[in-house]
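Shipment paperwork, digital attachment
Item: protein structure file
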Amino acid sequence: MSKRGLDKEFDFIHVLLARVDSADASSNVVRQWIGQTYAEKVLPVEIPKTAVIGVTAAEFGTVYDVAKYDGSAKTFKRARDAYDSFVSYIEGSMRGVWAKQGSATGGGVLNGSTPSGKRPGKGTKQ
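Attachment content:
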């Protein structure tokens, strides 16, 4: 892409281990390999391989899309807790980027968005 004058820059990159079966020996080998390869980029949270995740993935959804799960409440909670933890890490990374951008622009415009404190509302032209 750089040949076309397009360069990509990433503020963060994370590696998430998903569909992890802790009882499977090959999962442990893969976890070690990924940890050695990607080191600090690997998040300290894993999405476990559970029935609820299998069902939601087949429907192109996540545990957040489940209104009522017919399986074990413990299984659902384990899957939901893993996703909540993952979201917390991503949110923390995003907040860090936004803070860095805000301090770099003196608290002004972030990524071409509306300057803070000047949100369009009643009586404002957009």
